[in-house]
């Protein structure tokens, strides 16, 4: 496995792979890898000749009061884990390398970014699209792999891929969970012992809401049941619980076939997100 830190060196590797007619799979990450990331890499390994994993904590998707400086980083640990699941190239650039020039051109994520996580994180998804677009151009993948846990992010990136004709396929891998249902996340390391005991209530709440909605189709009642469950089983603060059509993230109508139930909850000082995507008629 090669660890590359410069765009020039990465470009040379991609050019060589393309000349050899090898397919490239990209796994974009911010590092501090967990089983969810490794599952993405394993899926990429099964479908591509060359697997590229980016490890880059992207400053443009963090707000002024967010945890960019304290976001967990451990490149040595991450490269060992990446190699263990068959990654061929780790691209781990510095901020200066990724953003050497700034001509002022920006990508706007649009109306999909004004709700859910985007409502409390203005500009976040603009930054996500900025770095993802750069990674798509630099690695030229035929397939790119993302986790369902970031469902809003996946929907917004998929819209950019569709609307701007990026020549690649999006692969979305189901959420990887702990045994008690907590979605795996790099931010879980922030949880205290008490926080960790309470955190699985988020997934429990979403499951209750899903079952309620499938039973009677009442979105407000489903969300209320989820809210009560979190309020009675945690000391957490709910940022949002939403039920929307997926992947367009619009209100549910009689024509809706697939639904996203998504939540963001502060457990202690840690903001955790989770979601369930299900078909309206058939359930999961």
TrEMBL record:
Beta-alanine binds at residue 61. The keyword Plastid does not apply. It is found in: Cytoplasm. Its EC number is 6.3.2.1. Gene3D superfamilies: HUPs, Pantoate-beta-alanine ligase, C-terminal domain. GO terms for molecular function: ligase activity. ATP binds at residues 30-37, 147-150, 176, 184-187. The active site is at residue 37. It holds the Pfam family Pantoate_ligase. It comes from the Bacteria. It catalyses: (R)-pantoate + beta-alanine + ATP = (R)-pantothenate + AMP + diphosphate + H(+). Keywords: ATP-binding, Cytoplasm, Ligase, Nucleotide-binding, Pantothenate biosynthesis. Its main location: cytoplasm. Pathway: Cofactor biosynthesis; (R)-pantothenate biosynthesis; (R)-pantothenate from (R)-pantoate and beta-alanine: step 1/1. (R)-pantoate binds at residues 61, 153. Homodimer. NCBIfam families: panC. Catalyzes the condensation of pantoate with beta-alanine in an ATP-dependent reaction via a pantoyl-adenylate intermediate. The reaction proceeds by a bi uni uni bi ping pong mechanism. Belongs to the pantothenate synthetase family. This is Pantothenate synthetase. It comes from Lysinibacillus contaminans. The gene is panC.
């Amino acid at each position: 496995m090669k660890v590359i830190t410069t765009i020039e060196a990465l470009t040379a590797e991609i050019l060589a792979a393309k000349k050899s007619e090898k397919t490239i799979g990209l796994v974009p990450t911010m590092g501090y890898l967990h089983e969810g990331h490794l599952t993405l890499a394993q899926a990429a390994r099964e479908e591509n000749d060359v697997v590229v994993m980016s490890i880059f904590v992207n400053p443009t998707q963090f707000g002024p009061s967010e945890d960019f400086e304290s976001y967990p980083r451990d490149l040595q640990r991450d490269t060992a884990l990446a190699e263990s699941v068959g990654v061929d190239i780790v691209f781990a650039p510095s901020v200066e390398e990724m953003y050497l020039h700034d001509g002022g051109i920006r990508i706007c994520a649009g109306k999909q970014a004004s709700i859910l996580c985007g409502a409390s994180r203005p500009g976040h998804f603009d930054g996500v699209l900025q770095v993802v677009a750069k990674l798509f151009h630099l690695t030229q993948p035929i397939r790119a792999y993302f986790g369902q846990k970031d469902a809003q992010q996946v929907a917004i990136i998929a819209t950019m891929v569709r609307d701007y004709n990026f020549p690649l396929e999006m692969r979305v891998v189901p959420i990887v969970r702990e045994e008690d249902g907590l979605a795996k996340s790099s931010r879980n390391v922030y949880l205290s012992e008490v926080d960790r005991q309470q955190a699985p209530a988020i997934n429990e709440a979403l499951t209750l809401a899903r079952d309620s909605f499938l039973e009677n189709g009442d979105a407000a009642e489903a969300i209320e049941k989820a809210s009560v469950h979190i309020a009675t089983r945690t000391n957490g603060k709910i940022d949002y619980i939403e039920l929307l059509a997926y992947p367009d993230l619009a209100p549910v109508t009689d024509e809706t076939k697939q639904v996203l139930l998504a939540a963001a909850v502060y457990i202690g000082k840690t903001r955790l997100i989770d979601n369930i995507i299900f078909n309206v008629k058939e359930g999961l």
